[in-house]
Amino acid sequence: MGQAKKAMWVEFKMDKKMSDDEWKERFAAGYGIFKDMPAIFSKCWWTNQEKGTWGAYYIFNSDKELQDYIVSDLWTKVVPEKYGAVPEVMIVEPGPILCKEVVTEP
Predict the structure, then answer these.
(1) Which contiguous run of DSSP H or E holds residue 83?
(2) Mean per-residue pLDDT for 60-89?
């Protein structure tokens, strides 16, 4: 049996006011970085305009791959430089995973 999946909930404070469509466009710009990362089983970006937050929910193939990611240059340097902030992060246990679409939009 394979290793158990592990998940990470990431939340940023919005750095600027943008419409939902503008946020979707911003997220789409990051698609290429993650589509070819074998450690990530899935990633879903989200926004909460009311609370002024945005982020992502990642599902990793294993705890080791998640731990490797959170100490990587991409996570510790590139992401904070790109967004001008370090997000709040929670490592969580995912429940059952249902994927109906591989990619909703690139």
Answers:
(1) helix 79-83
(2) 92
The two tokens of residue 61 are: 């193939």
What is the C-alpha separation between 7 and 60, in angstroms, rounded? 6
- Residue 68 confidence class, pLDDT cut points 50, 70, 90: very high
Are 58 and 7 in contact by the 8 Å Cβ rule? The answer is yes
Closest CA to 59 of 35, 42, 39: 42
pTM to 2 decimals?
A: 0.83
How far is residue 24's CA from residue 35's CA, in Å, rounded to a whole number?
Answer: 16
